[in-house]
Specification:
single chain, alpha/beta, eleven-stranded mixed sheet, seven-stranded parallel sheet
């Protein structure tokens, strides 16, 4: 897993390094500019000269001019992000590019390091005023636009003239022939939330430094950044420690191997119990149960009302079935303490009988996944919500989250008036603290949090994009994966993180045309790749 940083944490790491004497701010800015140029040539080798090889500043002017016939427009802002832009402009100029530089703001008010790089550029090229009307109207079409206007430091919405400037950036790249490169983040996005602060730009490539920021994977980040890469600038954050309860980590793979011991038996791997809806509504629970079995639960039983038993029996083989029609029958079933992980909600229904069953599940105090209709029932009944305990995992999508935590959802949906904006991480942490259990807030930027503040993001963006998961029943399978992992004695947070990661990997294995039934069937390949 990789730790994600807020803008404040990144600034603190840089400041620690500078104050220790290990590096200067000017050196960090130079390394950042070099990283951007390197990333450009890695992404588009054809821009690097003959054979796709990036020319070197040490090449002779004659050899450079023979190799390169490219143009760049560099847009610099009033902070250190603009300073990075001046470095990129100078390096490209030294490589023989035609470079046109624009500055938004007063050069005399730039931060010290940015001001030095501004003057270095001024020694070899002109600086145009980006703030004048139609500043980019007559610009000859470049190969690359460098967006170094705001980066991670944006604290107020982009409006008025600023908005027109950012819109003109997208205007330059509207025909698809011009590539846009954002330094840190596309201007107009909040680095801590990925939300838009007014108008924002779109990049084909976003180059950040040292670590990814929250905004690269949350909300609009995965859409607006294009392809996002991180370049090292020589920082060492070992001396800078973030309290674990304030960390946000980007999950890469399960934290432990999911193999089964060679001398184990089925009861060694737990017995998951999934509650089903009534006749004609059993499919969601069967999907969840199949997911629990495939992820390695030793046994999985479906609790089915009498009127749906024939329907379910005709559809299952390795899964087992037990009649459960009301809370009393469920209580009798749960006298078997080998049923160590419960799942309730997929296709369940929303009547009084179902509410009583949710209450009985919570009263049992066992590891429990509450999904779909169970979440809606809790949103209507404060007593059910009060029955949540620390072995529960809630798995809401945005609509369910809004019903369950309306005030938190309202803060998340409100247009931000300043940065850093309230984020999905903030919302999920607040919800987990209120619920007293794990909350997995679904989406391409799935966020998982526990009441003490520990948090992770399972982001299906960039190279892990899995748009095929937007299909009916995929969430039911996720609930089943988590339930099966709970049955195998993973802690609730770990089960939620691992289930979410496996869910995305199964979708990526299958690809286009995915339907929910395909997800459990791809799990063996994914587990095999983990050595499970």
């Amino acid at each position: 897993m990789t730790e994600l940083l807020t803008a404040a944490q990144m600034r603190a790491i840089e400041q620690d390094a500078i104050e220790s004497g290990d590096v200067t701010g000017l050196a960090l800015m130079e390394r950042a500019g070099q990283g951007v140029v390197e990333a450009i040539f890695e992404e588009w080798p054809e821009l690097g000269g003959e054979g796709g090889v990036a020319p070197r500043p040490s090449d002779s002017p004659q050899s450079i001019s023979e190799k390169v016939k490219h143009r760049a427009v560099v847009l610099c802002g009033p902070g250190n992000n603009g300073g990075d832009g001046f470095v990129v402009a100078r390096l490209l100029k030294e490589l023989g590019w035609e470079v046109e530089v624009f500055l938004y703001g007063n050069a005399g008010k730039l931060p010290p390091d940015a001001k030095i790089n501004c003057e270095r550029w001024r020694g070899i090229g002109a600086i145009n005023d980006l703030s004048v009307p139609n500043a980019l109207a007559d610009v000859e079409r470049p190969d690359i636009i460098i967006d170094a206007v705001f980066g991670t430091g944006l604290a107020r919405p982009v409006e008025g003239r600023l908005a027109q400037i950012l819109q003109s950036i997208d205007g330059l790249r509207s025909d698809g022939a011009v590539k846009s490169v954002a330094i840190d983040l596309p201007s107009g996005l909040c680095s801590d939330s990925g939300r838009s602060l007014g108008v924002f730009t779109t990049a084909d490539l976003t180059v950040s430094f040292h670590r990814f920021k929250l905004g690269h994977v949350l909300d609009r980040g995965g859409m607006q950044c294009g392809r996002a890469v991180v370049k090292g600038i020589g920082l060492d954050d070992r001396a800078f420690s973030v309290e674990p309860k304030k960390q946000v980590v980007l999950e890469a793979r399960p934290a432990q191997r999911l193999h089964k011991h060679s001398v184990a038996h089925k009861f060694s791997h737990g017995h998951a119990f999934v509650l089903s809806g009534g006749a004609g509504k059993t499919g969601a629970a069967r999907l969840a149960a199949r997911g629990a079995l495939r992820v390695g639960a030793g046994l999985v039983t479906l609790g089915v009302p009498h009127e749906a038993q024939t329907e379910v029996a005709a559809q299952i083989t390795a899964l087992m079935m037990r009649e459960v029609g009301d809370a009393g029958a469920l209580a009798n079933t749960l006298e078997d303490d080998r049923l160590n992980a419960l799942c309730i909600g997929p296709g369940f229904g929303g009547g009084e009988t179902q509410a009583a069953l949710v209450g009985a599940v919570l009263k049992a105090g066992r590891a429990t996944v509450l999904d779909a209709d169970a979440l809606t029932l809790m949103s209507r009944d404060a007593d059910l919500f009060a029955g949540l305990h620390d072995k529960c995992v809630l798995t809401p999508h945005a609509g369910e989250f809004k019903r369950l935590f309306p005030d938190i959802a309202e803060k998340l949906s409100a247009a931000p008036t300043r940065g850093p904006a309230y984020s999905k991480v903030d919302a999920t942490r607040e919800a987990a603290k209120r619920a007293g259990c794990v909350v997995l807030f679904k989406g391409a930027d799935t966020v998982i949090a526990v009441p003490d503040g520990r948090c992770s993001i399972n982001a299906a963006v960039y190279d892990r994009s899995a748009p095929w998961l937007a299909t009916a029943g995929s969430g039911d399978v996720l609930a089943g994966f988590i339930t099966g992992l709970l049955a195998r004695d993973l802690a609730p947070m770990q089960a939620a993180e691992t289930g979410a990661w496996l869910h995305v990997e199964c979708a990526r294995k299958f690809g286009p045309g995915l339907i929910a039934e395909d997800l459990p069937e791809r799990l063996p390949d994914v587990l095999r790749s983990l050595g499970a």
